[in-house]
Structure formats: structure tokens, C-alpha cells
Amino acid sequence: MELQADGSKSWSVDTTGKIWKFRWMVKNLSGITDKKLYSEDFVVDGNKWRILIYPKGKDGDHLSIYLAVADSATLPSGWRRHAQFGLAVIDQIDRKTSITKVATHVFNAKEVDRGFTSFLSLAELHNPRRGYLINDACLLEAYVSTDTTTGLISHELIVKTDSAIGNEKTTITRPVEITAPSSSRPSFQIVDLEPEEPTKEDMNTFFTSLESALLSSNTVFSQEEAKEAWTKLEAALNMTPISFHDSREFSPLKLAFKILASVGCSSTNLTIEQKNKLLAMEESLKQLSDRAAKAVEDKNRLTAKESIKNTVTYNLECSLIRYKEVESEVKQVEQKLTALQEQVEEAQKKRESMLVEQKGIFKSSQKMKMELEALSKEWAECEAKAKVAEDEEKTVEAEWGRMKHFISSIKEDVKRALEEQYGGKEEQEDNKMLVPNNDFIDGPQPLEGRFTWTVENFSRLNTKKLYSEIFFVGGYKWRILIFPKGNNVDCLSMYLDVADSETLPYGWSKYARFSLAVCHQIHNKYTIRKDTEHQFNARESDWGFTSFMPLGELYDPHRGYLVNDTIIVEAEVDVSKVGDDWSHDSKKETGYVGLKNQGATGYMNSLLQTLYHIPYFRRAMYHMPTTENDIPTGCIPLALQRLFYKLQYSETSVATKELTKSFGWGTCDSFIQHDVQELNRVLSEKLEDKMKGTVVEGTIQQLFEGHRMNYIECINVDYKSTRKESFYDLQLDVKGCKDVYASFDKYVEVECLEGDNKYHAEQYGLQDARKGVLFIDFPPVLQLQLKRFEYDSMQDTVVKINDIFEFPLQLDLDREYGKYLSPEADRSIRNLYTLHSVLAHSDGAHGEHYYAYIRPTLSDQWFKFDDERVTEENVKRALEGQYGGDEELPQTNPGFSKTPFKFTKYSNAYLLVYIRESDKDKIICNVDEKDIAEHLRIRLKKEQEEKEQKRKEKAKARLYTVIKVARNEDLAEQIGRDIYFDLVDHEKVRSFQIQNQMPFNVFKEEVAKEFGIPVQYQRFWLWAKRQNHTYRPNRPLTHQEEAQSVGQLREVPNKINNAELKLFLEVELGPHSRPVAPPENTKEDIFLFFKLYDPYKEELRYIGRMFVKVAGKPMEILARINKMAGFDPDEEIELYEEIRFEPSVRCDHIDKTLTFRTSQLENGDIICLQKFSEVLRVECRYPNLPSFLEYVHNRQSEAEARVAEVKTDKLNGEE
């Protein structure tokens, strides 16, 4: 309700432009109950304005004041109005303390008012000591100018502009324009009028009358009063000036001066000159005392400032001391951070591994659930077949016995016949067996099975890892591998291992789905079981869970997992569907391709597939203007165009990294489940904004936008309030609703506002009312968000609602005479919808998973889009399978009760997409290449060709191995020039491209030709990557390995599919630097490399290598090291072990008195040495090796940062 002002007057002043002042006296302020209040309209330059206030505050405990456009509702579309304005709450006692605020704004249809929400606190407004509220009346003023000149209105102008009105009380009048003084002319003029020349007679008459008047007005004082006045004056002058000022005795002295000045001017009294001096002294006395007081005040101020200066100086000294302390503490913390960096990296690796493991669990759980559902449907049929099979088995056994008896009866006859024909000789062929005879089991092997392993004395196991016995499933050998104390984690680590991996032929591969479990020995339902699947091969012969369960939980005696120091471990292995998931070609099988999951982006993939399969939306995306200079990772429209193009024309699954990067996501965001509805809305808003001003503007609204009406209707009075809202999706309740129609009924359900919840109607006060929602129109594409998740206050977490919730193939929203529609809805539009997509969510003990069921052309054929995999599905699975709820399976195992077994269906729908029947021909339209921008087609086709070329090159590369051979000469050439840490840059050594089938011994002949080193003098070492990311020679090749092919040998050091083999060629030189046979290498020998650091030259160089005994000590080989370095045999040297370079330098001092084993030195380790000297610390910038390597590390880091900065600048420039 809008109230108007009463009791105000307006006027205006003019500076460089026009400034209009409007005054509004708001009476009875405390008694106003309305939330907001308007003043009367006033006009400035033909524009209507008014003041808007919130007496109790708009959003808090402050008075809120705004300037509002009074006639905004009647102005034409696109209107704009510029104004400078000031608002003031006037202090009616002292105008100088009035509260003023000034602003400039361009008013428009969306912003019809502008002002200050927190103008003045209500406590200050009602403070009786202030003059803001006098007799419950508040005086407000508004200053408005439409002039664009800045700075016209200010606080000074407001508080000084009051001369035209004063304090008079008036009623409202029309604004009056007056002219104020400008800076270029005086504000007023004073005109002096010259009188006529007076005569002497006139002057005598004037002064005679003046003297009489003065004498008659003078007061006659007594002699006693004069003496008393004189005494007071002498007493005052006997004081010091400051004492007189502090005594406040000036008022009595004024009377004393007056009495003394009244003494007559005869010869026996004071002269006129003395009187004048006496009168002048009155003012001088006060001025002198004031000056003395001010001088004392200035001196005191200096003293106070000096005290403050001393305090601040002291505080600064304390701050300096504390700064140095903090600086020292920061260095200590940085050292700790450096030490913790390795742990952080290891934790990140562990996290990535767990996320991959989690994804595997999701997939396997879903597939197992589907198999269980399929099994339940086939159970009765299989049971009947099993009964028939029992009879058939008996028949076969009987026939088998008859055949066996017949063969036995003719055995001797056949033997004699063979001897007669072949002279007693029986030629036999040796059959090659894939497994040793003692391990072979006759007969067919089951394709799935369970193995139970009881591990006793578990807490007393002192081995790092433990294998179970071998068991067979599908003809394969398997075993369980556990790490009782954890595989570098505080958890039990458990894996499934291919037991005979080392004896299997080259290129072997086995696919299996399996689960591992630690059994709960009291209640089986608490058994911890984890599922996954894996393609086992020579590089990855074991697979499982590094963090299976916390050791604290396992060892807890109250948990029930470790009983009598015994645990029970189970493995279930299934190889029945070997290769199904690996060989499935979605494009070939269905005509569609999937989207790759980045870690936890299944929810996004299902949404993107749904949007892609709305052809009208896809065509609109293709028509969005993009250019060949746009970068996909920085442009959402281009990223979506590229994604849709690949989904339409690619033969394999499509990656989404470009799109997520265009969202501004990093790698971590791809491993976080985001809200699907939020993603859908944010994406729609961004696309809607990008479409503005283009040929596809309004597409999002045309497809997805509907409107609803919120209403409140009073029951007993004629009053109704309505509000129209738009929506892109509707959130429907699942809990307490059996289907979509029940949820819509609940959505439009009427709520009664009565009792304490009555509605406050304007003009009618509190009233009983009905509140509800009805729909004005539905969009062509209707998105229904099912509220499957809610907050559980008892568990303090969000829980999923798996209740059954049905949804139809066809949805009629005109049912029951349009019960969901508002009166103003267009009834000519038929709101009959067909189901297009079902986005489903599955969760359970091992995580959650998202996928979508879609029928792209609205035909009877449904497809399931599960990340990369696309399969055909029937309508029952797409609809009924996603209702949720419980499902029953009959209990058919003998010896058990026939009570049906119930289990919760954790897979159910959370988003439904319907398309209106009358719009489906328009929405399910044809989209082909002509709808795609030419630059996009050319760009993507070129990328596709390049990708195909790389694929061919990669396929060709699989036939070859690149062998990179590093030699002593490479180390000597690179260390100290190209590299400082580690031994060699493998990109700069001699490489050979060798066919995989070539025997390695033949390759050694190639090396002999290249380097002139005879084959018998060559010894090759394998390089190994360590946990600290360094590469070092690890061990020499064995004779058996050198007899293998290059392809087989390549798989020995590689745990990833790498087409490279890195080797170090060891060549020993004898007399005259001729190659000789390498020395025998035993387990007691360590192969070490040596570098020399010169602090004076700041130089690091490679000086050689040698074998040492693991039980030996550095002090025993100092002479050999000195000779290698070119030093005297007895030169004192310092030794360091080079450990790591990233993320920080670590170079540890070596104790020469300890053994190499105690110092934990091994093959490939690097020892750095330098001369020992005390003067180095003074003479050299980097006196020891660690300080030099730290310097090199910092220099390289700065160089890398500069390169990165240049790349970033270049990239930004391209954008």
C-alpha cells in the first residue's frame, strides 16, 4: 500500500544548472505501520519524482530512503532518466549536523528507484538528544538535478541552503524556482547612499541631543561600588593570565569595568583618555587570558604528542623484534612444508587411484545388479531345465557306462590287431600343454567361482605381503595377494593376482570381473566387499584395492573381522563375459557414440546426451556465431558445437575436457559430483546470454520456458494477489507420491491461511485466505526434476529417496478439465506430452553412477547412454526399471523357507524430459552438415584426419620399439651443461628403431656396428623410475632376457604401454683404452656414479663410475675416488648423495665411516664430491654442493616461470 506525504514545502536553487529542493515533513512517524511510504509527486524539468521511505527499515535496523520515478508505469518502453540527487534527514535543532547522502544514477524500467537502504540507524533517528525527530515529526529533503555536470550537489550545499524557508511550518505547495549565486558573480550587492552635506547647526543639534540621551541612559554607581570594582580589577590583575582564564571571573569584571568607566570626566576624576583605555582593557584582558590558555594548551599538546611518539617508537621496536622472530618461524615452516611435499604427492596419487577404483566399483555394481535382475526373470525357466537335465544326466551316465564296458571288452582284441599291423610299435605324439601336468585339472572349468582363504595368526605375520593358495576359475590360475600392514598406507591392501603370469606366453591377456571381501565372523551382513573389473596382462598381473579397509577397523576386537587372531578373506571371480565391454562398438551396434567420463562427470554426460538428442536445440547451437579464432577451452558455444559435431560424426566415444575447461573447471572439478539441476540451469543461462543479438536469440525460452501463477485469494473479502513466474524445469515431490500425476496434484494443492497464519491483505488487514499455484502455460520441452534427495536432520546428511515413483510414456496435463491450468491459460493448446529421456541415478554401498535412457526419434526403440557405452534397451527397462522401490525374488534354494526375498532398487529416475505432441515435428527435426558453420566443418574434419593419421602412426609404432642407449660419453657431455641433476637426458642419446620380433642379441650386433664395441664386451642395464621421479640404472639384463625378442624385453621395465626401451651401455676399458669383458656382477656389488663439484668455478661435471661392495665403506675407496677426480690420493674430500631435485633439492651428506648398505646406497645412485676447505665459506658464493644445486634449482624455476608467463600472455593475446 502506498501512502503519500503531508506537511511539506519545496523550492529550488540554481548553480551551473537547475537544482530542485523538495522538503517533506513526515508526521506521526512512530505510529506508521506500513512497510513503505511515498511522498507526493514533484516535477523537475518535466519529470515526475517522489521520495520513498521504509520507516522500519527495508532489510534491517536502519531507515531506508530512495528517490523514485513517480510515473514509471506509464513511461514508454526503453525509457531512461539521468539524475544527480541528494537525500537528507534534517537535524531540526542544528542543521549543520543533518545526515546527507549524494548519488548519481540513470533510472530505467528495471531500476525505477535508487537510494540508500541503510541511511540512518533507527536508534540514532529516535535519539531524543538529536533533532532528527521533533514531536514525532521527521523532516526530509531531496535535491534533484538533471544536469550532467558532476559535483553539483554536496553536503555543504544541503546544510547551507535554508535561507528561503527558515523554520516555518507550511503545507505542500508547487515547487518554486529561484536563482542562487554563481561563482562568476556576487551573491548580492550593497549600495551606499551619499547624504547631503550637513551644516554646523545640524551637527551641534545632533550631538547635544545625543549627549542628553546618553546621560539619561547612564546608570549612576555609588562610591562603594566603584571601590569594590577597583578591588576586583586589582585582584584579577594580580592573578596569572592562565589562572584568570581558569577562574572564569570575566563576567563580574565586565561590571567592574562598566562602573569604573562611569566615573565623571572632571579635573578631579578620570580623563576621557583614561576611560577609553579602561574600556579597551576590558577586551584586552579577556584576549590575553585566552592567548595564555591557548599557549598552555599548545604546550600540553606537544607533551602529549611526545608521549605518543615514545609509545609508537617502542611499539615499532617491538614489531621489528617480532618480525625477525616470525621470519625465522616462516623459514622453519617452509622447511616442514618441503618435507611434507613428498607425502602430499603420494596422497594425490593415492587419491587418483582410489577415484579410478571407485569408478570401477560403480560400473561393476550396476552390471551385477542388472545380471541379478535378469537372473531372477530366468530363474524359473532354468529351474525347470535343471530338473530335465537331472534326468538327462542319468540317461547319459547309463549310456556312458555301456560304452565304457564295450570298449573294455574289445581292448585286448584291438591291442593284438595293432601289434599284427604295426609290429608292436605305437607311435605317440607329444602334446604341448599350456600348464604343467600336475596343475592340470580334467574336465570343464566353471566360468565363475568363489575362493575362501582363512589366515591364522594374522597379527603376528611379519612379512610385507602374503599370497593365498592357487585356485582355478575358467581354466585360469588365480590367487589372493594381501599386504597385512598395508601397501605404504594405513589400510589392509588386497589384490587378485594371476598366479602363473611369469610362465604365460608373450602378449597374454585375461579379463575378469571380481570381488574381494573380508568376512564379518559374527554377522555376515557387515562383511566388507568391494567389486571391480580388470584386463590382466604382463604389465598389470594383479589388480585390487590398496586401501581396502582401515587397519584400525580390522584390528578392533569389537568389530568382528579379526576373531582369535584369524581373518577370513573371500574372492569371487567371473570370466563368463570375457571381452564383452572391451569389444563393444557402440557406433556399429546402435549408430550412436558415448561420452568419456573424466572421473565423476557421468551426471554431465547424461545431461549432454539429452540436450544433443533434442535436434532443435542442437541446430540452434550450430547456428550460434563463432569464429575460427575462438579457442574452445575459453568459449562455451564453440566447445558445445565441437562436442555435438563429434557426437554426430565420430566413430568412437567423445571427450568432454574442452567443454569442462570452457566452464572454468580444473582437473579436481571433474572428480567432484555437481548438482545436475544447477548445471542445467547455469548452462541454459550462459547459452541464453550468448544467444542475445544472434539469429538464435530466444531459443532457450522457446524450448524450455513455461509460466506459473502464484496466487493468494481471500475467503471473506473481495481481494486476490497474483504473481507470474517463469520456469525452465519443475521440481516434483517423490516422497508421498505414487506417480507424476500425484506429484502434480500436490504441486497445485491449495493451502489454507488461517488462525495464526492469516494473510495480511491491503486495506482489509488479516484475513483467511487460500494460497496456491496454477500454470499459465507449459513449454514445448518439459523438464521434470524428481526430488530424490532430501536432508536428514537425524543423520545430518543428504539421503536418497528410493521410493517407487511411476511416470507414464504419455503425460496428459489437460486431465480433469485442465485442473493444473490457471484461468488465463490458452486452452486451445493441447498439453499432451511424450516421454523423450529418462536420466537415472544408481547408488549403493560402493558409490553412485549416472546414465540416461533416450529415444532420439521418439520411436519405440530406447537406447541407454552409459558414459562411453551405448546399448539398445527395451521400454520396460527404461520406464519400469527406473521407478525405484523394492523388488521381490522368490527363494528357491532347498532347505530354506519360501518367503520372498526383498531388495531395494537403487537405480531410479531423477530427471524426466517430455516433448509436447503438437511440437514434436518441429523439435525432432533434421540436422545435417549445412547447419554447421563452414569454418567449424573444415576445422573439425582436419582434426579428425590428423587424429586418424596419429592412430595409424601409433598402430605402426606398435610394431617397433625405440631403444635409447645412454653411454658414459653421454653422461660426460651432458652433466654440467644440459643437465645438473640425474644422469642423462634420454632425448639426446643415440636411439634405434627396432622391430619387436628382432632378438635382442641381433640388436647387440647393430650396437657393435654403431659404437665399435664387440658384442661380448657389451653389458646393458635397465633404467628404473623411482618414487622420487628420478631415473637411474637399476639392474643388468640377464642372459635369458637378452635371448628374448625386443618386444618381450620392452615389457620388463614398463608398467604402462610405452613403445620405448631405455638402456645404459656399460663398457669396461682395459690397457690402451680397449674394451674388455665386464666384471662379474653379484648381489654384493653396487654400481655407483660419481660427479665432482668445484666451488671456485661453480662447476659440476661427471667423472666416472665404479662397482663397490655393499659391505664396504667410502673411506676404503677414497684413494680410487681421488684418482678418478684427478686429486692426490690423500686429498680430504666431502661426499654427498644426490637424492632428488623436485619439488625441492635434497642432497644428503655421506658418513664415510658407515657401510654402503647402512647408508642405503644401491645400484644407480649418484655420489657427488668436492674438496674439503674451511675457507670456502668465505671465498665462494656457493661453498658446498647443496647450496649450488639450490641455486641451479631456483634459476631453472624462474626460467620456467618466465616461459609459462610468455605462453599465458600469448594465449591471452590470441583470445
Task: Fill in the keyword field for this structure.
1215 residues; alpha+beta; seven-stranded mixed β-sheet; disordered N terminus; disordered C terminus; MATH/TRAF_dom; ubl conjugation pathway; coiled coil; MCC
In summary, what is this structure?
Helix content is 33%, strand content 27%.
Question: Helix and strand layout, with pairings?
Answer:
Elements: E1 10-14, E2 18-26, E3 37-38, E4 42-44, E5 47-54, E6 62-69, E7 80-89, E8 99-108, E9 113-121, H1 122-125, E10 133-134, E11 137-145, H2 155-160, E12 176-177, H3 200-217, H4 223-238, H5 241-247, H6 250-261, H7 272-422, E13 448-455, E14 466-467, E15 471-473, E16 476-483, E17 491-498, E18 509-518, E19 528-537, E20 542-550, H8 551-555, E21 567-574, H9 580-583, H10 586-590, H11 602-612, H12 615-623, H13 636-649, H14 657-662, H15 676-691, H16 699-704, E22 706-714, E23 720-727, E24 730-733, H17 740-747, E25 751-753, E26 759-761, E27 765-767, E28 769-777, E29 781-787, E30 789-792, E31 797-800, E32 810-812, H18 815-818, E33 832-844, E34 847-854, E35 862-866, E36 869-873, H19 875-878, E37 886-889, E38 901-904, E39 907-916, H20 920-923, H21 934-957, E40 960-966, H22 968-974, E41 990-995, H23 1000-1011, E42 1019-1025, E43 1031-1036, H24 1039-1042, H25 1046-1050, E44 1060-1066, E45 1068-1069, E46 1075-1076, E47 1085-1094, E48 1099-1109, H26 1118-1125, E49 1133-1140, E50 1146-1149, E51 1166-1171, H27 1176-1179, H28 1185-1214
Parallel strand pairs: 1-12, 24-29, 40-44, 47-51
Antiparallel strand pairs: 1-2, 2-11, 3-5, 4-5, 5-6, 6-9, 7-8, 7-11, 10-11, 13-21, 14-16, 15-16, 16-17, 17-20, 18-19, 18-21, 22-23, 22-28, 25-28, 26-27, 29-39, 30-31, 32-33, 33-34, 33-39, 34-35, 35-36, 37-38, 40-41, 42-43, 42-44, 45-46, 47-48, 49-50, 49-51
